[in-house]
Amino acid sequence: MNKNLTRRKFTQAAAASSVFSLIPGRVIGANSKVNVAFIGCGAQGAGDAHNVYNTKLVNPVALCDVALGTGHTANLEKKFSKSPKFKDFRKMFDKMGKEIDACTIGVPDHAHFPISMRAMSEGVHCYVEKPLAHTFQEIELMIAAEKKYKVSCQMGNQGHSGANYHQFKAWKEAGVIKDVSKITSYMNSGRRWHPWKFDEWQTGEKMPEGMDWDTWLGTKPAHPFSKYLHPGNWRSWYDYGNGAFGDWGPHILDTAHRFLKLGLPEKITAVHREGVRNLIFPMGTTIQFDFPAREGEPPCEVRWYDGTRNKPAPPKELEKGRRLENNGKVIYGKDLTFKGTSHGSPLRIIPEDKMKDLASSLPKFGGGSNHFMNFVLGAKGEEKTRSPFHISGVLSQVFCLGVIAQRLGGELHFDLKTKRITNNKIADALLEGPPPRKGWEEYYKL
Q: Of 298, 271, 11, nearest to 138 (Cα)?
């Protein structure tokens, strides 16, 4: 990359090019099955593959995972034994790009961006796990690419097609949920990094035979293989994951963010941090987001609590003898207070007596296709996806801002027009993060 070309200029130039459409998304006949590549074949990626396959509307045409041939991917490899296999997504698209209509991307947070950008540039529809990407600016580019390449995309916050989605929409439209000025959200289960006491990268371990570590690293800084990175532990490190925010935020705050039109905050404050370390996430944090008034909605304060010893105080409306679950939210409206948990679980009005009094007047709400079927039907042009990048991306950007506050502490001021942090140069630079590794620059130009 030209040393004079900063990442900021790089991403701004790429985003500005989104008005042009070079490669249209794949058009699939109504009676045809969708040819899908499963990228990420262990853990959550395997679950996504099974769920998309179970729609019975797809043909699995390729498997791709850096750890193919290990126990991590064995179940999916056995199920789709006839599908061509690749460890490097670049080689897969080089060889089979024209045969792939859609893909699932169930890989670590830091790898979402390059795979998605390559897929979208090929006109391939994308189902991408949450959070959408690792940095604020990567998400900005993915939103632009979705528009540029005219593809149908879905982020994997499955509850966005569940009962909570349909209920929140119906209750908001009917005025049951109105004038929300405060939301308390929390995720207080233990995290993988909570027992860790080290402040340096772990080394000296033997890498599983056949693992493609260079492709696993992708655009991000290179560190040695470690069991504290793969499998699953990558979420704990700032260089690769987005912590509890990236893992649970999209399941807890998705409908409130969407239907209250929260957008992006103008101030992010690290109210509380405990167990702060240089490379991994804190043991617990309280982060406050201040959203301005918008489109008829009042200013809204959203507080996030994580850490096993950092639970919020229960609302006064909560029934006597009941406790807050380990994950959920409390939404404070003008007249009513709502209690919810995570994913697709519906809200309830608290206290219970209040909901019983209002039961007969509350609007009914129906369902629809589940999140995976919605994605496949979106690829076929028969439905619009409920969590496309231009919606789920902004939600994910909120959490990227939260991660910066978790990392640095203090109060951050965010300019909604320029989309820059104005009072902290280090925080502003973290909107992009470090430059991509040599050989991986191209994904920021697509």
A: 11
Please report, for the chain, how many H helices and E strands are present, in that order: 14, 15
pLDDT of 343 strictly over 50 = yes
Picking from 436, 438, 430, 439, the residue whose alpha carbon sits closest to that of residue 412 is 430
Strands 85-86 and 58-64: parallel
Q: pLDDT value at position 28?
A: 73
What would the mean pLDDT of 58-65 be, rounded to a whole number?
98
CB 145 within 8 A of CB 120: yes
pLDDT digits (tens, 9 = 90+) for 13-34: 444 444 333 334 666 766 699 9
Region of 15 please: left (phi>0), alpha (psi -120 to 50) or beta: alpha
Strands, DSSP E only, in 88-204?
102-105, 125-128, 153-155, 182-187
**In DSSP terms, which residues pair with 338 in a beta bridge?**
331, 349
Quick check: 181 and 57 in contact, CB under 8 A? no
* Cα separation values, 201 from 68, 178, 211, 244, Å: 25, 48, 19, 20
How far apart are alpha carbons 60 and 440 in whole angstroms?
A: 28
The 10s digit of each residue's pLDDT in 134-179 is 999 999 999 999 999 999 999 999 999 999 999 999 999 999 999 9
- Taking phi over 0 as left and psi of -120 to 50 as alpha, with beta for the rest, 218 belongs to left
Q: Return all residues near 366 (Cβ < 8 A) that are at least 6 apart.
A: 166
- A 10 A CB-CB count for 170 gives 17
What whole-number distance in Å separates Cα of residue 197 and Cα of residue 209? 28
